[in-house]
Amino acid sequence: MRIATFNANSIRLRLDTILDWMAENHADVVAIQETKVDDDNFPRLTIEEYGYHVVYHGQKTHYGVATISRMAPTDVTFGMGDPAWPDDKRIVAATYDGIRVVNTYVPNGTKVGSEKFDYKLRWLERFGDRLGKEIQSHANTVWLGDINIAPKPEDVHDSKRLMGSVGHHPEEFKRLNAIVEGLGLTDCFRKFNQEEGQFTFWEMFRPQIFERNLGWRIDHIYATQPLANLCVACEIDRGPRAGVRPSDHTVVYADFNA
DNA sequence: ATGGTTGGCATCCAA
Questions:
Q1: What is the extent of the structural domain holding A59?
Q2: CA A135/CA A145 separation, integer angstroms
Q3: CB A116 under 7 Å to nucleic chain B
Q4: Which of A191, A200, A212, A233 is the most exposed place for a label (fewest CB within 10 A)?
Q5: Which of residues 141-180 of A touch strand B (CB under 7 A)?
Q6: Distance A26 CA to B7 C1' (A)
Q7: For the domain that residue A90 is a member of, what is the CATH number?
Q8: CA closest to B10 C1', residue
Q9: How many structural domains is chain A composed of?
Q10: B10 C1' to A72 CA distance, Å
Q11: pTM beyond 0.85
């Protein structure tokens, strides 16, 4: 099974990019973040006309997630699964041929020291509990999406300068490690590729930033141990970021012999 | 320390 993740930065603007990529790359499941559309206006019919299934959880203007698939999903769940937690449309989970796929748009954090940064840290702590419960009932689980953290020096273009800023902060590393190590997850991309300069996101507001490869690896695919053993490839496809009027992110995908 | 651009929507917020 081929499973991909892509922060589309508006699914309505990027739907052609997504459907073309899915067809050309024979992807089975594609997790989308930042759909930026409420459920009433989600382009469900267009996706279904292509013969795909889609589950989505969004709101007007900000955030929002969707997972498009060739096979029908089962056991679809939305949000943190905690009535006390604000549902800001960042999580959708479903099972595809026995693989649990948890698609998340982790809060950006905006500015270190801000309320939003604190929320990001608390969100990660709460999500770790939620993901742990998923894994208890699904040994084969993939957690993927826009994680909004570049966890290692080699995951940013200038770790010395960026260390301590949003997306590359020790407090974020601590929260992410607690999930990844606590649940025994494998970063599928790093199973195959240890090189620096392997990025999935390049900011919009600097000229020639993609051409100069001043990026971040913040879109990740994690797998539980039994599933990671079946992971035979994981790659970044820079194609979608190089296109006309692109998202600021590009596609990451992993192949599983499952 | 600040700014730059983009998307959605409303004349600003989030990234």
A1: 2-256
A2: 17
A3: yes
A4: A212
A5: none
A6: 29
A7: 3.60.10.10
A8: A61
A9: 1
A10: 38
A11: yes
